[in-house]
Amino acid sequence: MDAPGPDPRLVPTLGALIRCQFQARGFSFLHRQPVTSLLAGRRASRIRGRGLAFEELRAYRPGDDVRQIDWRASARTGRTQTRVFTEERDRPTLLLADLTAATFFGSVHATKAAVIAEATALAAWLSLRFGDRVGAIVFGDDGLEEHHPQRSRAAVMRVLGALAARAAALPAAPPRPVGAGPLNAALARAEAIAGHDWLVLVAADLQAFDLAADQAIGRIARHNDVIAVTVSDPLERALPAPPWQGRATADGARVVVLDPGRGGLGAKVRAAHERRLEAVRRGGIRLETPVLPIGTEEDAAPQLRRLLGGAAAPKRRRST
Predict the structure, then answer these.
(1) For residue 88, is pLDDT > 60?
(2) pLDDT at 313 over 50
(3) Separation between Cα atoms, residue 197 and residue 92, nearest integer Å
(4) Greater confidence, 268 or 17?
(5) What's residue 27's pLDDT?
(6) Residue limits of the DUF58 domain (predicted)?
(7) What is the pLDDT of residue 271?
């Protein structure tokens, strides 16, 4: 009998990421959004959607957008003329996925790595469904790998395979603190790869964003749509009520009792998290880049569905 595979809530498997295609419903990263979506407000975000290609110049018809009237052509012909555009079918999507050693952490439902991989897989399946090319930069502490955008299921499968392979190595990786270096290196590559009117989605540990990342995202966002999916754990937002115990020594042999109330430790943890999230959000508003904060206490799909204003998954009918 085959041994059971890893729990996908801890280590995202290829099979779990493939199944994400059935959860990629009820929301999207396109520019047409429900009013409750974080992407709906133009003041908070600048989502272009696919580009528009000029198709023809024709006589104005009732109901046409008056902003598309070509006044020069109208004066020349003596009749009101309007420009007609068609939505371009192709908008490349570039996905950046943070699978550093620090993301192999979670205190409730899943690890950060699992939530990041799931969010990336959902975006990949959505982009493929809309007919866009899908590429990715999957990065860790030991470097990154690039997958240039292609429009095929095989391209999405290669991205998912890269996510699963890098995640599978995390349990054996030595623990490391969160660092900004891997994310900044991935953003530098994204800046070199992305052209104009791409969708660049960054799914990363909230603690990895720093000023350099803010500046890199700003440069990319000048000509592209950028969405930041920031992942955190409940323990990073607020420590549990005291007292609680854990192995806090270097050798892991001695049990100590820690009191979050002593020295204001609990308040400091909560304040540090709020400052970091507020800094990222402020950068997003300044750059007109949406920031979607999600956590490890739940799968990524329902969280993104709520943030993007999508309807809940339809209930199955009961058999009679």
Answers:
(1) no
(2) no
(3) 8
(4) 17
(5) 84
(6) 56-241
(7) 76
pTM over 0.70: yes
- 49 sits in the region (left: phi over 0; alpha: psi -120 to 50; else beta) called left
What number is the average pLDDT over the span 106-127?
95
What are the tokens at 121? Answer: 């897989």
Domain spans, the chain = 14-37+89-232+283-304, 53-86
Give me the sheet containing 93-98, strands edge to edge. 143-150, 134-140, 93-98, 199-205, 225-232, 291-295
Residue written as token pair 């009679």: 320
Whether residue 95 contacts residue 159, with contact meaning beta carbons closer than 8 Å, is answered with yes
Residue from 134, 139, 261, 251 nearest 188 by CA: 139
Compute the mean pLDDT over every residue in the chain, rounded to the nearest whole number.
Answer: 81
Q: Would you state the structure tokens that stand for residue 243, as one six-digit string?
A: 């007292």
Instruction: Give the separation between CA 289 and CA 41, rounded to whole angstroms.
Output: 11
Tokens representing 17 are 């990421």
Distance CA 110, CA 295 (A): 9
DSSP 170-217: TTTSPP----SHHHHHHHHHHHHH--SS-EEEEEEEGGG--HHHHHHH
Q: In the chain, what are the helix, strand and coil shares in percent, each to the nearest 5?
A: 40, 20, 45
For 205-224, write each residue's pLDDT tens digit: 999 998 899 999 999 998 89
**Partners of residue 200 on adjacent β-strands:** 94, 226
14-37+89-232+283-304 folds as Rossmann fold (3.40.50)
Cα distance between residue 95 and residue 127, in whole Å: 10
